[in-house]
């Protein structure tokens, strides 16, 4: 199993490539949606990393995949423009998945 990155900027992709993680750079809703669909169908990908700005382009599709598929796991990561507090992100996922607001 390997990682795959969907990023909104080349800097994050280049850094991940240094760690051996392949991926793609996307900017529009259609690009994010297509990259996510392709990544979810890759048999050897176990974890899809997606930057928070890319995730915001296609948030409903990401949540649909997270709730309906066990693998690959989709993990939101901050990039150089990190705007979200990680505890806020975790609380948001709990609220959406379980219906509990912390």
Summarize, please:
The chain has helices at about 10-20, 30-40, 50-55, 60-70, 85-100, and strands at about 1-5, 20-25, 45-50, 75.
How does this structure look, described?
The chain has 102 residues and is an alpha/beta fold. The protein has one domain: Rossmann fold (3-Layer(aba) Sandwich). It has helices at residues 10-18, 29-41, 52-57, 59-68, 86-98, and strands spanning 2-7, 22-25, 45-51, 73-77. Strands 2-1-3-4 form a four-stranded parallel sheet, sandwiched between helices. The radius of gyration is 13 Å and the shape is globular. The N and C termini lie far apart (33 Å).
Structural descriptors:
102 residues; Rossmann fold; 50% helix; alpha/beta
Q: How many separate structural domains? A: 1
Give me the secondary-structure category. Answer: alpha/beta
- Strand tally is 4
C-alpha geometry: globular
Query: Which sequence of SSEs, written as H and E, runs from N to C?
Result: EHEHEHHEH
Oligomer: single chain
What's the CATH C level? Answer: Alpha Beta
Would you spell out the secondary-structure blueprint of this structure?
Blueprint: E1 2-7, H1 10-18, E2 22-25, H2 29-41, E3 45-51, H3 52-57, H4 59-68, E4 73-77, H5 86-98
Parallel strand pairs: 1-2, 1-3, 3-4
